[in-house]
Amino acid sequence: MDLSYGGEYEAFRGEVRDFIADHASQAPKGNGMRSKPVLDWQALLIEKGYTARTIPREYGGHGAEPDILKSRIIAEEFANAQVSNGLGGQGIQMLVPTLLEIGTEEQKKRFIGPTLRGEIVWCQGYSEPNAGSDLASLTTSAVLDGDEWVVNGQKIWTSTAKQADWIFCLVRTEPEAPKHKGISFLLFSMDTPGIEVRPLKTMTGDSTFNEVFFTDVRVPKQQIVGSRGEGWFVANSILRHERGMLGDPNATFSRLNALIELMQQETVDSRRVIDNPVFRDRLMQIQGEVMAMRFNDMRILSAKLNNKDASLAGMIVKLQGTELRHRLEGLAIDALGELGLLYEDSPLLRGQGAWQSQYMFYLGLIIGGGTSQIQKNIISERGLGMPREPKPQQV
Amino acid sequence: MEFGLTEEQVLLQDSVGRYLADHASLDRARQFADGAEERAADVCTALAELGVSGLIIDEAYGGVGLKMLDAAIVAEQLGGNVTPIAFAASAVMVPLALQRAGSEAQKAHWLPLLAAGEASAGAAVSEAVAAREDARISASGGTLTGRALFVLDHAADVYLVADDRRKMHLVEAKARGLTSTRLTSIDKTRHIGELRFEGVAADPLPGSDDPAVLADVIDAGRIVLAADTLGAAQNMLDQAVAYAGERQQFGRVIASFQAVKHMCAEMAARLEPCRAMIWYAAHAFDEVPEESRLTACHTKAHLGEVGKFVAKTATEVHGGMGFTDLLGLHYWFKRIGFNRQMLGGPELVREEAARLQELI
């Protein structure tokens, strides 16, 4: 057991801290995507190697050698300082790694740089009304007509579709092939005629998602990633990536600390909430669980460093992490009693309403990105080696 | 950075695990549980040869000189095999107390005997966690009077006894004025008992004036019991998955039903982070003193909760067979139940965690 990162890395941590201390005033606040401060900050972070760190320079990245610990230190320091660590989103987090792995040279040159710089914002067209957990049964079709694909169908749960310039989209190009082998991965501009975006309002009251309708959308033939029929393979390589990000215990840890503070500050009949032994015990239970997930995260990090498969320790993070976070936010609501009901712009609102909105949002994350039930299938089949549910016999 | 076991630790894990799998199977535990043996002498001797009884005892006193993480690794194996030997008190808590607070004479006498497996030691410290009944030990004029309950690794040659001022003493089993009674517990693979003291001459540990020493001893016991639960729960999960893969109903193995798969997935999802938690708690005990106590409390409580869930769920996966004595799954169920209650159940230990953070 050796939990130190070592001298070289502690020196690196010092550099990152110094950078943050010197430049934090330039960092953008809030979630804007296109403003000049956001784009300038992104450019500065790429130049310093604090984002797009390992992406080759020829494609617009910083071009450093992959170093998991340095990446972790950067993430930790920006999170601790609560300073933006650059643009995220599905283009940067999911499409760029995919293009690096599978894209053509021309696609890499054309898309990666502008995506990293924030000039192209992407959305992801995967789920459909009738293809959720069973994503491979998707029916949005693309038929080749001369030099163009003609796309028809509907996507749902498409975040940032309103803001996006481009979409990476799964479509069925080989209707005769088995369902996993008939899918292709297309890239096209959201300005293409025939695309309609309708916001989808969620239980939180926000419209973070959209429905996207395609009617005879014409896409140049070469805007396909991988070959015809390989889209499922391309998409799977990124979905795995996404699952790793959901349920991050370090984010949950900072919410836990906020909750501890809340329970010390709030009073019921002039008595602190934390002095109620039932609430205190529920808090301590969650603290223990957060602790376990953070140690589990250290184990995963260590496995990555040593090129080992984190296996079950990694597979359970999405399931455990999102459920735990949902319960944590829910405890805060309970601790607040009637105050916990307040929402939006109400007087007396606590924590800008985040306890309620996060409570609901994390229910969304329990469902999204592979539901808890799908996660349990994955854990039992891939982690424990149990057999798949047999397909029902056709009648 | 390396969050995990060293090669030597993996070797230790394998050598203990292999011996237990080959020579101390469920049948051996059953024989011990059914019979009137005070000790499973063959198992004790073999494990002593592998270094288990002297694991954390300094080499100068005939031990192996290893640390809490190594003890946790061994405890996990013992729990996984429901091994009927004295370990938590005899090989961890008492040697630790002696090494931290014992006189040279106490160490020179007891540590080599314990390391060689020629003597065993029990820990009478439950009242320092929470007293039940009228249990309490008071010390005066070099003698102890009172009653200690739930003595861990009972039927020992020597006992570590905490008095009501949190000072520790050694008392030999044969001491005049000491009455010892076995308490029959659900877990027949380890002994607990009651000690009554009527002016029993005691040998105080000179370094135990500092109450932090007793707190460390209890932390160590909690980590080791939690590690025992980790091993036992992992074994129950493994047995459940294996059984589900063989048992057929409705024309197919029950492992192919989602209801059964999801029970197993939930066990795995809750249990897997416990492994990292045990490693960290043991590591913190050795190397990160400022985090040690809080981590030990949370680890004891959390493993108690997860262990209870796995014990119930894995039994259910076995259906009616899980409820029988024939299959023997209940030995693990009871082992986990024992570990949960001993040295503080989850609620009690979590209250301690809150107090440590000055939340009360």
Q: Can you describe this structure?
A:
The complex is a heterodimer of chains A (395) and B (360). Chain A is of the alpha+beta class and 395 residues long. Chain A has helices at residues 7-23, 36-48, 68-81, 89-102, 105-117, 231-245, 249-265, 277-305, 311-315, 317-336, 354-367, 372-383; strands at 122-125, 141-145, 148-156, 166-172, 183-189, 195-200, 209-220, 224-225, 267-268, 271-272. Chain A folds into three domains: 7-87, no CATH class; 122-228, Butyryl-CoA Dehydrogenase, subunit A, domain 2, CATH 2.40.110.10; 246-383, Butyryl-CoA Dehydrogenase, subunit A, domain 3 (Up-down Bundle). Chain A is globular. Chain A starts with 6 loop residues before the first helix and ends in a 12-residue tail after the last helix. In chain A, 38% of the residues are buried. The model of chain A has no long low-confidence stretch (mean pLDDT 94). By secondary structure, chain B is an alpha+beta fold. Chain B folds into three domains: 7-116, Acyl-CoA dehydrogenase/oxidase, N-terminal domain (Butyryl-Coa Dehydrogenase, subunit A, domain 1), CATH 1.10.540; 121-208, Butyryl-CoA Dehydrogenase, subunit A, domain 2; 211-356, Butyryl-CoA Dehydrogenase, subunit A, domain 3. Chain B has twelve helices and ten strands. The mean pLDDT of chain B is 97. At the A-B interface, helix 8 and helix 12 of A face helix 8, strand 10, helix 9, helix 10 and helix 12 of B.
List the helices and strands and how they pair.
The complex is a heterodimer of chains A (395) and B (360).
Chain A: H1 7-23, H2 36-48, H3 68-81, H4 89-102, H5 105-117, E1 122-125, E2 141-145, E3 148-156, E4 166-172, E5 183-189, E6 195-200, E7 209-220, E8 224-225, H6 231-245, H7 249-265, E9 267-268, E10 271-272, H8 277-305, H9 311-315, H10 317-336, H11 354-367, H12 372-383
Parallel strand pairs in A: 1-4
Antiparallel strand pairs in A: 2-3, 3-7, 4-5, 5-8, 6-7, 9-10
Chain B: H1 7-23, H2 26-34, H3 41-49, H4 68-80, H5 88-101, H6 104-116, E1 121-124, H7 126-129, E2 136-140, E3 143-152, E4 158-162, E5 168-172, E6 178-183, E7 192-201, E8 203-204, H8 211-246, E9 248-249, E10 252-253, H9 258-287, H10 289-317, H11 329-341, H12 346-356
Parallel strand pairs in B: 1-4
Antiparallel strand pairs in B: 2-3, 3-7, 4-5, 5-8, 6-7, 9-10
Helix pairs in contact in B: 1-4, 4-8, 4-9, 5-6, 5-8, 8-9, 8-10, 8-11, 9-10, 10-11, 10-12
